[in-house]
Write a structure and sequence with these properties.
The structure is a homodimer of 240-residue chains. The first copy, chain A, is α/β, with parallel strands linked by helices. Chain A contains nine helices and eleven strands. Chain A folds into two domains: 161 residues, MoaB/Mog-like domain (Molybdenum Cofactor Biosythetic Enzyme, Chain A), CATH 3.40.980.10; 65 residues, Alpha-Beta Plaits (2-Layer Sandwich). A six-stranded mixed β-sheet of chain A has the order 2-1-3-8-7-6, with helices on both faces. Chain A has a three-stranded antiparallel β-sheet with strand order 9-11-10. A two-stranded antiparallel ribbon of chain A has the order 4-5. In chain A, strand 7 and strand 8 form a beta hairpin.
Amino acid sequence: MPNPTAAMLVIGDEILSGRTRDSNMHYLAQELTHKGIDLKEVRVVSDDRDAIIGAVKALAETKDHVFTSGGIGPTHDDITAECIAAAFGVGITIRDDARALLAAHYDRQGVEFNAARQRMARIPDGATLIENPVSIAPGFTLENVHVMAGVPAVFQAMVASVLPGLVGGAPLLSQSLRIMQGEGLIAGPLSDLAADFPELSIGSYPFQRDGIYGANVVIRGADGAQVDAAMARLSRLFPE
Amino acid sequence: MPNPTAAMLVIGDEILSGRTRDSNMHYLAQELTHKGIDLKEVRVVSDDRDAIIGAVKALAETKDHVFTSGGIGPTHDDITAECIAAAFGVGITIRDDARALLAAHYDRQGVEFNAARQRMARIPDGATLIENPVSIAPGFTLENVHVMAGVPAVFQAMVASVLPGLVGGAPLLSQSLRIMQGEGLIAGPLSDLAADFPELSIGSYPFQRDGIYGANVVIRGADGAQVDAAMARLSRLFPE
């Protein structure tokens, strides 16, 4: 059975303007690989209603899971929750359980639970909450879309809340070999190797350092014995 | 006149598997912002023919420019050039000018210009070459799609070759203010400020460090006087 598929949607002008360097994509990619869920696509869109709704619809229709990051805080530019509701044609209201979580949190901190903060309790109808042990304001799952915060510490905590509840597949195994030759020399043998192991993904990632050309060749697959066999052949082709 | 729009397409299994952290997106985002070209969307897809062709078509139809990174080397997993040709319905052949560049390069290095290396001279019909001062193998521009390498040093050199030839717009100006209060407190005043300056983009990027909550508020726009006016008001609302 093939692994479940996933897409990620990163929401935020700050990434597209170059002000902030996204780190959530790399984190989620690693976690999904361990879980055996195949991340097939990532999109980054701005804080724009039509762009968010369009991307959510396109990705939710074609992938088993969609993970979003960003745009669920209390400020005017945080429009993700209402866009997700609109994408699925459901309503969105301040929900009692989310409000209770936040009210208790701000009460403990001695901070007013004002209108802006109550905005973070707005949850689309039919969603389940995603726990946020870092800053309490919850994410949510609606259908196959998991909506999480953009702040990396909070995003990571929410991923840790969501992933155990999902069905994974065979974790992608990988082995790599660093070859100190230019890609132009190794391309022929690599192509033959890929043809002999059609179920494996064999990638070549070139580098150049101090004028020396090399490549990291990565062999990936779900079948450990096949990965071993291909790597053994590769090591014989390119002994150190 | 609105600024030209752009999208980026990052091609590579190594990003989606979490093995490699993409850095080209952040670099391009900053360069386009300086140039006055608005980066509206980024997609990351795997080394899959249908995924690449589908994304190129969708982005080229809706944006003024598409910039791709990755998949133009000599190995079997480098399929970007033929996918771009297929997306535009044109042929692809080894082209004399590209072959001459590469032949001279490998001749200088005393290295055989073998079949794999000649693959890097395959250029879609009607494309213009993008200069690569780092490792010679050229990128290319076909219609509104600029196809570049994934290795960061080469990607950056190709961006430097392409951007001067493009028409830019008004560079996006930005000013930011660090406010040492939780977003829940600043959300109300920020929302009013955004309503009073509808042509500006006002974003709030929260952080939490050593238990202290704060936010960087960024005001962006093409009109410097408006950015100044909004920032002056924000500074009065939240004095240090």
